[in-house]
Structure formats: structure tokens, C-alpha cells
Amino acid sequence: MKLETLIAAAALAALSVPAAAAPVDWIHWTRGTPGAKGSASGVVDLGAPGPDASDISVEYAGEIAFIQTSGGTNYWTGNPSPYVSPEVDNAPGTPDIIALSSATSKTLTFSAPVHNLFFAVVSLNGNGYAFNEDFDILSYGCGYWGCGTLTKEIVGSEYRLIGSGEPHGVIRFNRAVTSITWTSLTNEYWNGFTVGTYGAAPPIPEPSTLALASLGLLGIIAAARRRRDA
Fold it and tell me: What's the rounded mean pLDDT across residues 26-35?
């Protein structure tokens, strides 16, 4: 393979590093108002001590059957955990959860674009969520309320997560997002969710930055040619 081809391949690889298993920072829901037009707020703490500008604030708008923000029953249990996979090292670590019961629209909004947004569910019992964003199912299995399976269906512009039995598990959205909207497909006594991520999406380089990077690669190629021809 030519040296120029090797350098170009290395540059492309550096710009597209695939996600691998890593600890997920799950949200801490800090407040919430249950009801048909409920709301909630939370923060994904990315690990720095004290208030950190890199932490991600999250706002939820939609119905809430109940919410846990500081204690309560930990529904994120299971052995083996239905929330752990080759992409996710850890289940949600606190009882924080938003419970849903109505076939209505819901929206999450993030203070910064989020890549690798993980969405964990409890007991999607014969129900489903119709999302406006595509996703992959990472894991499902037996959890607090029993066992079941998760499948995906694409219906028009909707990406549907369908539950059979009592599934508990995690999905991941396929691109960086600043908001997610979905509709519960049926009414249910309750099912629950929370979200997490590895961190904020990296900034997209400005055109000038990409131009400088291209010039740098050209310089490397030219220098390599001179050494080869010497």
C-alpha cells in the first residue's frame, strides 16, 4: 500500500473512533412535577467536582405518573443486569426514575449535543415507545418486574421500541442529539425510564480547522516523499 494511502487511512480512523464499553454517567433527576402535563429537570454529572460547565442539564416535558429524585425503591436491579452490555459497563446507580402511564407525547431536551445517549427502561409491559430518532437495542432481560424482550420496528418516520412480556433494558440513539421526542403507544399502569451518556458530543471542526489539518497531512506526505526519494 502506498504511503499516501496509509496516511489518509490513519487520518480517517482518527476522525471516526467507534464507541466502546465504558462507564456510563446516568442522570440525577433533581426535581419533578407529576401529572398529565408534568415536567422534570436533571443533571448528568460528568465527573468533575463541584459545578462544572461540561455537565449536561436535561429537561423533560410530558406526563409523569411518579418520579424519584432522592431515594425510593431501586427498580434498576437484575442478576445478570439487563442494563449491562459490551457498550455499557454499569446499570443506573441510584433509584432515580421517571415513571410513565399515558399514551401521550414526551420530550427530553439537553443543554449540549449528546453523543451515545443511552435510554434505560423498566417494565415496558406489552407497550412501546415511538421515537423521532433511530436507535439500537443494546441489551434486555430480566429485571425488577420480570422478564421480556425488546424489538425495533420502523413505521414511516417513527422508530418504535416494542416490549413483549416484562422487558428491562437499554437502547442507544444513533447520532448526537439535543432533544428526543417519543410517544407511548398504549396506556399502562406504569413503566419507567432514565438516561445517561459517556459525555457531550465532541465539537465539529470549523472549515478553517479542517483546512489546516489537510495542509498538515500534505506536509507529512511531502516530507515522506523526500525521504523516500533521497
Answer: 98
